[in-house]
Write a structure and sequence with these properties.
Blueprint: E1 4-14, E2 23-31, E3 35-39, H1 46-53, H2 56-59, E4 64-71, E5 74-75, E6 88-91, H3 104-114, H4 119-132, H5 148-160, E7 166-170, H6 178-195, E8 198-202, E9 215-219, E10 225-230, E11 250-261, E12 264-275, E13 279-283, H7 290-297, E14 304-308, E15 312-315, H8 328-333, H9 340-349, H10 365-378, E16 383-387, H11 395-410, E17 414-418, H12 422-428, E18 431-436, E19 439-445, H13 446-450, H14 453-458
Helix pairs in contact: 3-5
Pfam families: ABC_tran
Organism: Bhargavaea cecembensis DSE10
Subcellular location: Cell membrane
């Protein structure tokens, strides 16, 4: 057996202002070269566990740790601040949170400078990791000009350029288009086999990983470990059969919309209509302009052309940008338009009751997203745009989100949903708007897209599970 790289013995963790532990009595060992996935319901402490392993916690939050944590056989507390980051690299759930520099090259160089890598070796490492991650052409680009999926790839490159022994990944596929996600998994498989890298990932959707993981550690809702067993690929999420929604008069009409920022054309002359009660999915490759379109439709980005709508609500990809108050309850009731009964229903169905009094910035990524969705549903806007609403959601959360959107569409609410989750898109969509390179390919009935391999491939999409008959890569 390989030597342990991570050992936990009866480890519990509590944030300083909390009365109860986030993690409770965790005991396990991970050995060099293992591929381990950490799963469990949204908000159970999965990301917190990763942050204990890279020493971000308790150092950066004054958290209270009980039990024994050993990293490479050495007590975690005996490492100097930053020392463990030479051995353990992390890709965070929100890549923006880990960038310090302006361009991709500068960010990679900054990582290496902190590790005191020589100038002679720095160029080799940057060139190699850009080639490995398919980012060679991104070297001189401004990071904040990239899409969410492209930023995720840059964050992964920044982790790997350190040539670590352990790679921690917090839902790394969440913002990748389906084809890029599949390629990422296959690429990581090759890297791991070549280097013996230990991979520890937080993930809700094991079906996306095609059998990559050897072992699964399962956390329960109370932060206790309820399973440690051989991983399986898991079946995709199953949604109820949904009949087509309403397609009445147009609720959103877009004519010749284009967006140019700092002299760069991001969207070119898009025109389409979405009917009252219709659920339309926007799909396409990372960096194609999906989020730019969403921001233009709700007035965040200036645009030419016309957008007609009776009123538009927006759930952004980074939900924190929506928050205005100091509690989850106040976020949902902020508009004053929802009845007490509606708020209670949303709180129960989105599993927000347990964090009702918490600050919205202090909850997990998946919970933040549900708070933002709940606030927008409580606002009763006739048109609601959601950017990656399924990110960070467990199976129960995905199924409840599906039901809420389905019900509201039957009441006449129109939805425009950006998602890379093909199973969710297949279940919920009446129509699919395909975008590539800032141009509208067209608006299609959903079934037309799932049954057209050429159309899927051109937009970096894969058929929903069940329609895809190809064998998995790592069976």
């Amino acid at each position: 057996m390989h030597e342990p790289v991570v050992s936990l013995a009866d480890v519990s963790f509590r944030f300083p202002d909390d009365q109860v532990n986030t993690l409770n009595g965790l005991t396990f060992t991970i050995r060099r070269g293992e591929r381990v996935v950490i799963s469990g319901p949204s908000g159970c402490g999965k990301s917190t566990l990763l942050y204990l392993l890279n020493r971000l916690y308790p150092l950066n939050c004054d958290g209270i740790v009980e039990g024994d944590i050993r990293l490479f056989g050495k007590r975690a507390d005996d490492y100097r601040p930053g020392e463990i980051n030479r051995l353990i690299a992390t890709v965070f759930q929100d890549p923006d949170s880990q960038f310090c520099m302006t361009t991709v090259e500068e960010e990679l160089a900054f990582t290496l400078e902190n590790l005191r890598v020589s100038r002679a070796d720095m160029e080799r490492r940057i060139v190699d990791v850009l080639a490995q991650t398919g980012l060679t052409d991104f070297r001189n680009l401004v990071i904040q000009s990239l899409s969410g999926g492209q930023k995720q790839r840059v964050a992964t490159a920044c982790a790997l350029v350190a040539e670590p022994e352990v790679l921690l990944l917090d839902e790394p596929l969440a913002h990748l288009d389906p084809l890029t996600a599949r390629n990422f998994v296959r690429w990581l498989d090759g890297i791991q086999k070549q280097t013996g890298l230990t991979v520890i990932a937080v993930e809700h959707r094991l079906d996306l990983w095609e059998g990559f993981f050897e072992r699964e550690i399962v956390l329960g809702s109370d932060g206790q470990m309820i399973g440690d067993h051989t991983a399986d690929s898991k079946a995709p999420v199953v949604f109820p059969k949904r009949a087509s929604g309403m397609t009445g008069k147009p609720a959103l009409s877009v004519s010749d919309l284009s967006v140019e920022i700092s002299g760069k054309q991001l969207l070119e002359l898009l025109s389409f209509d979405i009917g009252e009660g219709e659920i339309a999915v926007i799909a396409g490759p990372n960096g194609s302009g999906k989020s730019t379109l969403a921001k233009a439709l709700c007035g965040i980005y200036k645009h030419t052309g016309t957008v007609k709508s009776p009123g538009t609500g927006y759930v952004p990809q980074s939900p924190e940008f929506l928050f205005l108050t100091n509690s989850v309850q106040d976020e949902l009731s902020f508009s004053g338009l929802a009845t007490t009964k509606m708020l209670d229903d949303l709180a129960d169905r989105l599993k927000l009751k347990a964090i009702w009094d918490a600050h919205p910035f202090a909850v997990s990524h998946g919970q933040k997203r549900r708070v933002a969705i709940g606030a927008m549903l409580a606002d009763n806007r006739p048109v609601i745009i959601m950017d990656e609403p399924t990110s960070g959601q467990d199976v129960a959360g995905l199924q409840e989100l599906f039901s809420l959107i389905d019900e509201r569409s039957r009441e006449g609410i129109t939805f425009l949903i950006i998602t890379h989750d093909m199973e969710f898109a297949s279940a919920v969509a009446d129509s699919v708007i395909l975008i590539k390179d800032g141009r509208l390919t067209g608006k299609f009935m959903a079934e037309e897209v799932w049954e057209n391999p050429a159309l899927l491939n051109a937009h970096h999409l894969l058929p929903p599970k069940g329609a895809d008959r190809r064998e998995p890569a790592f069976a």
